[in-house]
Specification:
- The protein has about 290 residues and is an alpha+beta fold.
- It has helices spanning about 15-20, 25-45, 55-60, 65-80, 95-105, 110-125, 170-175, 180-190, 195-215, 255-280; strands at about 80-85, 90-95, 130-135, 140-145, 160-165, 215-220, 225-235, 240-250.
- It folds into two domains: about 15-95, Orthogonal Bundle (Arc Repressor Mutant, subunit A), CATH 1.10.10.10; about 105-280, 2-Layer Sandwich (Beta-Lactamase).
- Helices cover about 50% and strands about 20% of the residues.
- β1 (about 80-85) and β2 form a beta hairpin.
- The longest helix has 26 residues, at about 255-280.
- The protein is elongated and about 65 Å long.
Length: about 290
């Protein structure tokens, strides 16, 4: 995975300079609208796969002058609408696009697509399955499916909050992030969990390696005694790493070996199924 950092930030304008540039005429206001339109055209240049693009490639896709593209991509990176890779010298959509992406996803409910798949897995494995998204240092459960044939149950319901660095859901999200995104998240983890940071740093490092190697993260009794879990990250078009899906159950029924050899491939299959369905439902890059 390429390390990602932002390009050198431009020096902020002095207050009086910024004020002197405020639009006082319709022509000035029109100029700002033109800049906004160009910025949006750059964001639209990225397809749902969110591949890395250079300034030259973006200029070709948008028909904008390359100097204009260079200026706008630098500004969009500073606002976190784009991420920049110093290794590749290219850009792709950043975390701030999530705010825009969720608006588009309102008509394509990930929960509706994921729920029947998660319920089937819960029934087949006699376990708990969850679709979750991040809120600060918690993973909020958006969908929870309990096995319909088991007396076993965890006290987890829609709206429940799982501690991000101790849950398989949170570790999968951290592991799937870009280096830049993960570094920002880890700074917050280290601040909020100062007393346990040394332990958590090792746990997260191991999770990142496991995700790189296997495509999922497992936890062994870290969230609740006697309970093991496993999770994968789900990429939504234009908003990568928005959700995670996971499974949890008693450690005697779901030892580490079974999680990795049996449940991991099943969760990855559900992840790919959901992503493929989303990709078909979302408008293509060329649609108006």
């Amino acid at each position: 995975m390429s390390a990602t950092t932002s390009p050198p930030a431009r020096a902020p304008a002095r207050k009086e300079d910024a004020a002197s540039r405020e639009p006082s005429t319709p022509a000035a206001a029109g100029g700002q609208v033109r800049v906004l339109a160009r910025g949006l055209s750059i964001l639209r240049a990225f397809t749902p796969r969110n591949e890395w693009l250079s300034n030259q490639e973006i200029a070709a896709r948008t028909a904008l002058p390359r100097p204009t593209v260079s200026r706008l991509t630098a500004n969009l990176t500073g606002l976190r609408y784009l991420s920049y890779s110093t290794t590749l010298r290219k850009y792709r959509l950043g975390t701030s696009v999530l705010a825009l992406g969720f608006g588009a996803l309102a008509n394509v409910d990930v929960r509706v697509l994921a729920r029947p798949l998660l319920q089937r897995l819960a029934d087949e494995e006699d376990a708990l399955t969850v679709l979750a998204s991040r809120d600060a240092m918690a993973m909020v459960c958006n969908e929870v499916c309990h096995s319909s044939k088991s007396l076993f149950t965890l006290r987890v319901n829609v709206g429940s909050r799982l501690v991000l660095p101790y849950s398989a859901m949170g570790l999968a999200l951290l592991a799937a992030m870009t280096t830049q995104e993960r570094d920002a998240a880890l700074r917050q983890v280290s601040h909020d969990f100062k007393k346990h940071w040394r332990e958590l740093d090792k746990l997260i490092e191991a999770a990142v390696e496991q995700y790189r190697r296997c495509g999922f993260c497992t936890t062994l009794q870290t969230l609740e005694s006697g309970i093991n879990g496993i999770a994968v990250s789900v990429d939504t078009p234009g908003a990568p790493h928005s959700f995670t899906i996971g499974l949890a159950g008693p450690s005697f029924r779901f030892p580490a070996e079974r999680l990795e050899s049996d449940l991991g491939p099943k969760l990855i299959a559900i992840k790919r199924d959901v992503e493929q369905r989303l990709a078909k439902l979302m408008p293509s890059a060329g649609d108006p």
